[in-house]
Amino acid sequence: MAAVAALGLNLVGCKPKDAGSAVSGDAAEKVYVAPGKHDEFYNIVSGGFNGQMSVYGIPSGRLLKIVPVFSVFPENGWGYSEESKPMLNTSHGEVPWDDLHHIALSTTNGEHDGRWAFGNANNTPRVARVSLSSFRTEEILELPNSAGNHSSPFITENTEYVIAGTRFSVPTDNNADVPISTFKQNFKGYISFINVDKNTGRMGIAFQLKTPGVSFDLARAGKGKSHGWFFFSTYNTEQANTLLEVNASQKDKDFILAVNWKKAEEYLKQGKGRKEPAKYAHNLYDEKTHTATSTIMNEVITLDPKECPGIVYFIPCPKSPHGCDVDPTGEYIVGSGKLAAVIPVFSFDKLQKAIADKTFDGDFDGIPVVKYEAALYGEVQKPGLGPLHTEFDGQGNAITSFFVSSELVKWNIKDLKVLDRVPTYYSVGHLSIPGGPTKKPHGKYVIAYNKITKDRYLPTGPELAQSAQLYDISGDKMKLLLDFPTVGEPHYAEAIPAALIAKNSTKIYKIEENGHKYAAKGEKEAKVVREGNKVHVYITSIRSHFTPDNIEGVKLGDEVYFHVTNLEQDWDVPHGFAVKGGDNAEILIMPGETQTLRWKPNRVGVVPIYCTDFCSALHQEMQGYVRVSPAGSNVQLTWGTGKNPVAEAEKKVAKK
Ligand code: K7E
Ligand code: CUA
């Protein structure tokens, strides 16, 4: 137990000595973005336990948007509207929440192309793709044979693949009822290779690599000379299934797993893949029908490296590695052992030579282990305590985050010398340099995503906002410029020049292209249709009224579907829609779009509906009524907008 206590103490972050130190005099000027001016970078930030992505401007730190991904978001109806519900479907049914840790922005030739942001669901394993034009989640793909999708999503140079490694090794889905104590025999670590369509971004699981049962933590693709390879940090190579805090920290070294995915592709072509039954959801949002669909898939192709020599190798890495990062040239692979005293830097060339010469140190569960020294380029000595993640500035330097000693440390990749260190407030997790994981980092800033906030802001009860910190890295010394609070608990984030994204932003959806089954593309198409106990309301919104805004003939026991089409064709004119007593949320309808709110009235009366988004001077007038009558009542189904709409509609009905 003494060991546990000692370890526990060690891992709690400590406060840097000069906590609260002043920023340099010109800091304010460097982060000041004048009113009406735009930021230089978009910062796409993971939401951690809120399951969302958020978008900030850098250098101002201003929050621009929250993009719901894996979690329901009542603010705009994500997960509440009928159209978006299928996005949260999984093989377990609807899962309304997840834990999003990592962002991967799509690249072409290893450089940001500004098309998509990928994010991982850590709890119920899924990968999402968010459009950087509409800032909406377009696709969510569930991953079978996985548990705790932490080593995810990471992308190859041309976004050929998004990969996702399982954090928990688990028994294969179709042989799952085994004793936990049979970990070593039955538990496997699966890595999913998800292919991404060049034009549409559409994802699919190309294959899964079935590896020995270890925990995958993080990963990076090779680039340049190492394009075609992938590197994963692993821990729990002790293969413990209980008290991992102690039992997974026994070995002096864990592993980095090097995967030659080009070679895996060759084996697949030779038919070495095995089709295995698997159940997982594939959810797609269609911008034309404004509707998501969820398809349950039944099969996945697996590759067993034991049957495919030459695709995977283990490299020893001290100790409990967390981050595994590849420098812009693709030559250097940086491991960050949370419990290690050094930062090991591996050489891709040396790794290739060691593989060719078979400079191995035996094997681990049938996979060759390359000798540590044979793959090692060198070690950064005395870098700090608890290294977690490394990013690159594009000037030949790396910056590593240290959780325990609560600092960012800049070091030179070639000579492995520490150049500079700055404290973080407090206990930094991930860090992000704009373009840091790409072949051409944009540099200029580093942002620290801190795990502990304490006294940095006005106190807000037991829970404080997480804190991000922006540093200028354009000179020799890193300089703190700004603290800004964040939503959720950010882990990784990426920043990308605004110029790559802003010009492509979606402004409206063309009403004539609206392919929604229940769209009313003009007020003339507005109507109410009864199908048994289902009542479909085709309702339009335009400043500042709904058509229809008076509806009678709804009865207790009915299920009402308000299909709201926003007829506006102007940027930034969404309308909202809410109904009193509704058991879900509001919906927010973008110009040209149709969204549906389901409502099951549970009492007799006249129920108000209204627009929730302040859309015009007469926004407050944008409202209506629905009359709910007892089941079996003979009130006619009538509707309208205008002068006594219901009375007029009744007259028409009477004439027929
Ligand atoms: Cu927070 Cu990337 Cu989940 Cu490190 S991980 S900090
Ligand atoms: Cu429409 Cu307020």
Automatic annotation (TrEMBL):
Keyword Metal-binding found: yes
SUPFAM superfamilies: Cupredoxins, Nitrous oxide reductase, N-terminal domain
Pfam annotation, one family: nos_propeller
Main location: other
InterPro entries membership: Copper_CuA (IPR001505), Cupredoxin (IPR008972), N2O_reductase_N (IPR011045), Nitrous_oxide_Rdtase_Sec-dep (IPR026468), Nos_propeller (IPR041114), NosZ/Cyto_c_oxidase_sub2 (IPR051403), WD40/YVTN_repeat-like_dom_sf (IPR015943)
Compartments, record wording: Cell envelope
Keywords tagged on the record: Copper, Metal-binding
Keyword check for Transmembrane helix: no
Highest taxon above the source species: Bacteria
Name of the protein described by the UniProt record: Sec-dependent nitrous-oxide reductase
Species per Swiss-Prot/TrEMBL record: Nibrella saemangeumensis
